[in-house]
């Protein structure tokens, strides 16, 4: 292959681009199961070089796996070659520029390889924030956020990533496509929403034009406790339906709350005794954070509910640990713990039924597991549910142990909600996609793929 | 053709389904230019009957034009047969049921043929409103709103129609497709947004699941005046970017304001004198209406701007006439006036340049015309512009007179904004679509069309 940009064949580079960060990915890196490794890592430095790499890969019939931060937890960046004889990881870190800022319109164009922190730094120089803080924030990239329909912890305030996108620049095997022209349009279907969430199937996202906001002045995070899951759901629902959600709105169920309080260390027993004193039988933690929305509007709506305020220390504690999940996983694995997360969303009338169904499915499959759940994103019509599972790792069959639990949980999820609210489909959620979008939906995606990637070099084995 | 449902061959019925309500449509009904008339009007009474009609039309290779309220102003329901030997208008008025209401999730499923007022009546029985009030409200339908990415006068508060849609049920020639599963999802591209705005190309929308809201308690509408267009744009922009827009937010330019004040009759001179007294040199009218959003938030942000309050009478006057535009057009035509509207949207940094460009293009083409403009919908990153044009109708060539003006305006629009913010593409905006979505975008739409409507019976000659 002609070298149109930096190409590495080093084992260390190839291994670093072998899959994402799911529990099964981590196991694979530890020798459990096959670990597909790309034949090379290709690192273009501009949208033009990305286009040139695609041209060369079409010519040589080489599979291409677009690779941003490599934080996929659904097998979205596995180095699968499909029917091709070779596969390269397309590392987009070289696309790292802030292309332009329109301060009046509050629109900024960012290149795809920019990570969360770097985006905040670049925009911060202009007084702006993107406000997109998923748990993968520290490593994930603008292109990855768009390719997977990411949702950040503050999405109740700033919106999901797709809500921020004004336009997308996409390198496809049939040419460059810029999609999205105005803040809103009725010029046919919203093709931007076809590119967002396309998980590298239709092309490589090289630049994204995004709505930005002024950096928050004095953000504030607080902890609250309600008595029982149903009371919490009802509270979050009314905040959402009254239009007074905090930017960050998170409700933990009693199991997650128990763990959170236990982890609070020396303060834990004080808090627990205080809650008992206040007559809270089944504490469920609520974290609210205000960055751009009105705290007083939320607080005035809260007054209609029975809520115990735990104050800003609890909010600060959440803030401090907000990106800890991914960091702690290797240590937990070392300690012999299987740890993974799952997520979904559904309408309010099914939120509790869905939580119970997933919880039961996981417990039935895993036995003595800790299954915790929280609402991470709330909407007027429903909410997301995010599950964290911890269980002693099977020594004989750690891969099978989780694979079976994942199937059980996903079957339960797909009966009552979406198979994924913000983790994307990748390889892991594929078996449930057709149930959600119909065989016609799958055919439509295939038709678009055939149009844009006629030889099928792009990210084989994912999404479709 | 077998009769799977009511079929009418009566001239009166066929004529009633011959095109929409654009100025050129009205001229055609008055004998200027060709008026394509459907060969029959087919009126199914259920989603199943729609599917059956499509099956029969595929079998007999008959073109199908889905027909809701017939209010398209872009040629979206012209009875074109394309390469087919016959064309039927598919009148969806028989799909008139409220299918279900989930009051907890605030989601209602409405059939496609329900008109705006009927939707409000049906939802009102459950205490809800849809909050979708485009100027076509009185006749247009749920299916039409979805098929054209409609935006209502209160879209700053309730959102555009696509923001309200939870899922869509679509009858396609290859089978039924239900798309949309949860309040939000990362399960691949948002295919719902491919169906919304598809203008009958991919299938016939039979049911739409929609987010609803409680009926407003004490809505309030008020008039204000600012001095000059730029001051008004700046005011609306800050309301949008501060997140305190009224549900209805409308800014008229000085030309539209002049006409609005003149039409206010006996009060006009009082208002004009008052504004002169207050030192307003170039009055621009602002109408704000609150239905679900907070008036106090808007008002407190307004206090930072130089604004003259005209009070609730001016708001009531706007409310009274909010659907008058379409009603008055026939009378104006009778009086020898060419009257038509155009609309677009762009980012804030280009709003004024776009207004000037369209205004100049229209005046250059039409000579002594009245060209009025208002911002009808505001977003954080930009706004829509809505133009109303009045000019003495050419006696020799009324069709050519407007056709040339439309081309000039659309050329100007397509350089700086979207070719349509809420009127859709239909037949009239087709020449500018490729400029906006790229040839790749057009190819993608064609690929999806080929997948869902392989024999091309659906709405020939529109969108694509």
From TrEMBL, chains A, B:
<keyword id="KW-0274">FAD</keyword>
<dbReference type="InterPro" id="IPR006094">
    <property type="entry name" value="Oxid_FAD_bind_N"/>
</dbReference>
<feature type="binding site">
    <location>
        <begin position="199"/>
        <end position="205"/>
    </location>
    <ligand>
        <name>FAD</name>
    </ligand>
</feature>
<dbReference type="GO" id="GO:0008609">
    <property type="term" value="F:alkylglycerone-phosphate synthase activity"/>
</dbReference>
<dbReference type="InterPro" id="IPR016166">
    <property type="entry name" value="FAD-bd_PCMH"/>
</dbReference>
<dbReference type="GO" id="GO:0071949">
    <property type="term" value="F:FAD binding"/>
</dbReference>
<dbReference type="Pfam" id="PF01565">
    <property type="entry name" value="FAD_binding_4"/>
</dbReference>
<feature type="binding site">
    <location>
        <begin position="66"/>
        <end position="72"/>
    </location>
    <ligand>
        <name>FAD</name>
    </ligand>
</feature>
<dbReference type="InterPro" id="IPR016164">
    <property type="entry name" value="FAD-linked_Oxase-like_C"/>
</dbReference>
<dbReference type="InterPro" id="IPR016171">
    <property type="entry name" value="Vanillyl_alc_oxidase_C-sub2"/>
</dbReference>
<dbReference type="InterPro" id="IPR004113">
    <property type="entry name" value="FAD-bd_oxidored_4_C"/>
</dbReference>
<feature type="binding site">
    <location>
        <position position="329"/>
    </location>
    <ligand>
        <name>substrate</name>
    </ligand>
</feature>
<keyword id="KW-0285">Flavoprotein</keyword>
<dbReference type="Pfam" id="PF02913">
    <property type="entry name" value="FAD-oxidase_C"/>
</dbReference>
<feature type="active site" description="Proton donor/acceptor">
    <location>
        <position position="386"/>
    </location>
</feature>
<comment type="similarity">
    <text>Belongs to the FAD-binding oxidoreductase/transferase type 4 family.</text>
</comment>
<feature type="domain" description="FAD-binding PCMH-type">
    <location>
        <begin position="34"/>
        <end position="215"/>
    </location>
</feature>
<dbReference type="GO" id="GO:0008610">
    <property type="term" value="P:lipid biosynthetic process"/>
</dbReference>
<protein>
    <submittedName>
        <fullName>Alkyldihydroxyacetonephosphate synthase</fullName>
    </submittedName>
</protein>
<dbReference type="InterPro" id="IPR025650">
    <property type="entry name" value="Alkyl-DHAP_Synthase"/>
</dbReference>
<dbReference type="InterPro" id="IPR036318">
    <property type="entry name" value="FAD-bd_PCMH-like_sf"/>
</dbReference>
<feature type="site" description="Important for enzyme activity">
    <location>
        <position position="250"/>
    </location>
</feature>
<dbReference type="InterPro" id="IPR016169">
    <property type="entry name" value="FAD-bd_PCMH_sub2"/>
</dbReference>
